[in-house]
Amino acid sequence: MAKTLKVEKGVRSASIFKRLVAFLVDLAILNFIVVWPFKRFFESMIPSGNLMELASFVKANPAIVSQVNSIYLFMGIMFFIYFTICEARFGQSLGKYIVGIYVKGEKENATFWQIVIRNIFLIPIFPILLLWVIDPLSLVFTKSRFSDRISKTQVIENVKKVYV
Amino acid sequence: MSRRSTFRGIMTVLLILFIISWGYAAILDATGDIAGSNVIVIPVNGVIGFSSGFNEGVIPNTIIEKIKKADSSPSVKAIVFDINSPGGTPVASEAIVNAIKAVNKTTVAIIRDLGASGAYWIASATDTIIASKYSMTGSVGVRGSFIDFNGLLERYNMTYERFVGGELKDLGDPLKPVSAAERLIFQDKIDQMHKLFVAEIKENRNLGDSQAIEISSGSFYLGGEAKNLGLIDLLGGDKELEEHLKKTLNITEIHSTRLEDKRSWFDKIPFVRSSLNINPGVTLS
User: Fold this and answer.
1) Is the Cβ pair A94, B6 closer than 8 Å?
2) Before B86, cis peptide (omega within 30)?
3) Residue numbers in B near A60 (CB within 8 A)
4) A107: which residues sit within 8 A by CB, 6+ positions away?
5) Residues in chain B closer than 8 A to A40 (CB atoms)
6) CA-CA distances (angstroms) from residue A93 to A84, A102, A115, B6, B36?
7) DSSP per residue, A72-131
8) Residue B254 in 3-state DSSP?
9) Neighbours of B248 (CB within 10 A)
10) Are residues A63 and B20, on separate chains, in Cβ contact within 8 Å?
C-alpha cells in the first residue's frame, strides 16, 4: 500500500544559536561599514599603552574624550538605524537573512515603533545601556530578550513538518 | 517580498550607512581631532630633516601640516612646540621656522632635555621660549663632516680614478683626500651658513651685538645661562607653561590636544627606524 507524505508549513521561535550567529554576522558587517572608517582617527588620537597611560591621557585631553564619546554615539545610532530600517522594512537584517530567521509581532508583522523599541538598546546612552546586561541575561534564562518582550516582538524561523 | 528584493533592500541600507560613515570619518580626519581644543601641542622630537618617509625624527612637511591645521582652527588660541631635538639640516629647520612665523596665534616653545641648533632656531621663531634650568639649548653653529676613506683605499692597494667635467664636481668625495683649495671652499660655505644662522637668531630674539657674538661660538647653554643671554624667556616646565598660557590667553582652563605623528606599521619596525637615521652632510648642531 502506497504511503502518502503530508507537508505542513509552520513557524517557531528561532534558536538562541541562530540568533547569536545572525547578530555576529551583522556585527562583522557593521564593523567594516561603520567602525572601520574611524580606525585611523582613533589610532592617531589615542596613545597605545597601559591603562595608567590611557587614564592620564584621558585626564589631560578632555576635548578628545568628548570627541570620542560623540563618535561612539554616532556609531550606536548607525547600528540602530541599520537594524531598525532593515527589520521594519524587510523583517530581517543581513545576518538574519543569511541564517533564515526574521522578526514578527506577536500575531502579525511588527510595526515600525515596535522595531524601534526592540532596537533601542543599541543607542549608547544611560540608562539604555543597562539593556546591554539585561537583554543577554533575559535571553539565556527566558529564551527571549527583555527588549523583545516590551516591544511585543519575536524572532522566528520557518519550519516544515512532514507526516507520513 | 521576494528574497532577492529583500537582499537588494538590505544592501541599499548598508551602502547608505557606508557612505555616511566614511564621509563623517573623512571630515573628522581633516579637522575633528582638534575640535574644541584651545591649545595645540606639536612635538618636535629627534633630528630635523627631510627624508624618504622612514625617518623617525622631525619631518618638516608633517610639522608644517600640523601648524596649518592648528592655525586654521577657530577654537585654537595657542600652539605649543614641545621640543626635544639636537637640531638638523638648515633647509628643513628653515621650512619649519617660516611656517611658525606665518602663524596668527600665540606660539610658545618648551624645551625639554635638548633644544639645540636647528631646534633652537625653531624655538626662537615662537613668541615665548620656556626651558628647564637643566635643558641644553643654544648651539648656534654649523657643522659639516664626512669620513675620509682615502687611507683605507691605500691600505688595500686601491686607487681613486678621477674623471670629472668641472674641476670641483667631486668636491667632498670621501674616497679622495681633501685639497687645501677644497678645504677653503667647504669652510666658506659653513661660514656663510653660520653668519645667516646667527643673524636669524639675533633677529628672532632681538639680541644685541655682544649677545650675538657670544652665541656665535656655537656653544650650548644650560637654561639659566640661556636666560641671562636672552636666548629663553622663562625657566620652568609644564607648570610654568600652563601659567604662561592662562595669563597670555586670558583663559581659566586649558583644553590641549597633542598632535602625534601618524606612522604606518612599516615605520614602527625597529630596524627600519634605526637604519635610516643617518643624515650625512651639513647640519645645524
Assistant:
1) no
2) no
3) 256
4) none
5) 25, 29, 262
6) 9, 8, 12, 9, 37
7) HHHHHHHHHHHHHHHHHHTS--HHHHHHTEEEEESSSPPPHHHHHHHHGGGS--TTGGGH
8) coil
9) 14
10) no
pLDDT digits (tens, 9 = 90+) for B174-195: 888 888 999 999 999 999 999 9
b/e map of A125-148 (b: 16 or more CB within 10 Å)?
A: eeeeeebeeebeebbeeeebbbbb
The answer to whether residues B76 and B37 touch, using CB atoms and an 8 Å cutoff, is: yes
- Which grid cell is B143? 657643522
User: A105: which residues sit within 8 A by CB, 6+ positions away?
Assistant: A111, A114, A152, A153, A154
Residues of A in contact with B37 (CB under 8 A): 63-64
| 8 Å CB contact of A67 and B35 | yes
CA distance A75 to A67: 13
Does B169 contact A at CB distance below 8 Å?
Answer: no
- On whether the CB atoms of residues B111 and B137 are closer than 8 A, the answer is yes
Question: With 60 as the cut, is the pLDDT of residue B263 above it?
Answer: no
CB spacing of B7 vs A97 below 8 angstroms: yes
Distance from C-alpha of B32 to C-alpha of B26, rounded to nearest angstrom: 9
Which residue in chain B has the smallest CA separation from A47? B260
What confidence score (pLDDT) does residue B15 get?
92
